[in-house]
Amino acid sequence: MKTFFTQKGRIFIGILLLGILFTACEKTDPNAETNNLLQGDWEVESWTLDGVEQMGSNVNTFDIEFKAETDIGGETEWSFIDVLGQAGKIEADYTVENEGKEIDVEGDDLTVTFSGNVLKLSGNLDGNRWEIEAEKD
What is the rounded CA–CA span in Å between residue 42 and residue 133? Predict the structure, then answer.
């Protein structure tokens, strides 16, 4: 009878260890994590173009929205109103890449960093150096 309980105990411990092993090995995709953090509306506080601040001098408001369509990408909409009151909008597809450190916006790569509710994007778009700092709405 003692052997029966020992055998049952071994099976139970084996199943328990397998369960722990499978849950401990579960890894999250850093691209998916970044994509999740991007989701929503962002109000741009600072935007420099080739080192020159654009907010207040050329643009009054600038908002960015990210909408996931897959685990690692989706659609982004960049809306702005210039100092003359004219509105503009850019819509593009994006993909998160490089272990969640970059987004590809239709062929242009931007470095992505987060600090709390602050998003920083930097890189070259259309041959110009962009630096964006935005706060989540």
Answer: 9
Q: Which residues pair with 91 in a beta bridge?
A: 77
Report yes or no: 94 and 112 within 8 Å, Cβ to Cβ.
Answer: no
Take residue 15 and report the two structure tokens written for it.
């199943």
What lies within 8 Å, CB to CB, of 51 at 6+ separation is 129
Number of residues that this document lists for the chain:
137
**pTM tops 0.85, yes or no:** no
Question: Other C-beta atoms within 10 Å of 49: how many?
Answer: 15
Distances (CA, A) of 59 to 52, 62, 63: 12, 7, 11
Q: Tokens in use for 90? A: 């850019």
The three-class DSSP label of residue 26 is coil
Contact, 42 vs 64, CB < 8 A? yes
Q: How many CB atoms lie within 10 A of CB 100?
A: 21
Residues 6-57: tens digit of each pLDDT: 666 666 666 656 666 555 555 789 999 999 999 999 999 999 999 999 999 9
